[in-house]
Amino acid sequence: MNYRHGYHAGNFADLLKHTALCELLRLLTAKDKKLFVLDTHAGAGGYDLGGAQARRTGEAEAGIARLMAESKTGMPGAVARYLAAVQAYDRKFGPAGGPLHRYPGSPRLARAALRPGDRFIACERHPEEALKLKREFAGDRAIEVRQSDGYHAVKELLPPVERRALVLIDPPFEANDEFEALTRAVRHGLRRFATGCYAIWYPIKDEAPVAAFFSSLAGVKYLNMELDLGPRTPEGKLAICGLVVINPPWKFEEAMREALPWIAGRLGPGAKARVAAAPA
Question: Is the full-model pTM beyond 0.90?
Fold first, then answer.
């Protein structure tokens, strides 16, 4: 387990999953009913874009920095709300002035969106990342941080007492059998809590495991979104990733069909987005 998201914070994959996450949270918290949020692979919580890891890859410069430089005129609402959340985190926890200094991971974005009475558990298995996550939220009683296997948490914590949940599953995909473990976790989750909203990120490096994963979702209502950097991506770099949202809330698809092509248009020649609902 050597993965560190600090190398990739604010990259094109984060643009996809965090734009979607912010919109999911906005729509799910619009109802006057309590919500449970589970982040199974939470990471460190927040990331220093001026640190050695981010500078080594430069992925934030090709990702979040490009969106931040865009005019707000004509920007889709979901993108504007996501960028506002990123800026709010940076203003609160980063140095004053200048370009973006800190980037919020999914736990920070979730925490900022939740209301009093909502419940949030963030799991991170990696010892060093889990320690950073605990430090990030030290003294914050609104979030429970666990150093644990997030896949086990899906089985342990569902169904929630709130009867409404957003489960974010964002594995590092280091293990060769990650898609198999992911498939098992999603099956467990749906058996325990079929009406929950599940947001699942995945890389597209080999089509076969991706196809097998989607075969396991036959009969399930979902929206699948992909962001593709195109053929100009340097060899060895991740060029395509996806996010599938099971049981998406009303108007989520409409927002993503507007936001993701706009984002792709800012990521360079050949970049494109795809949004597709589950086959009928």
Answer: yes
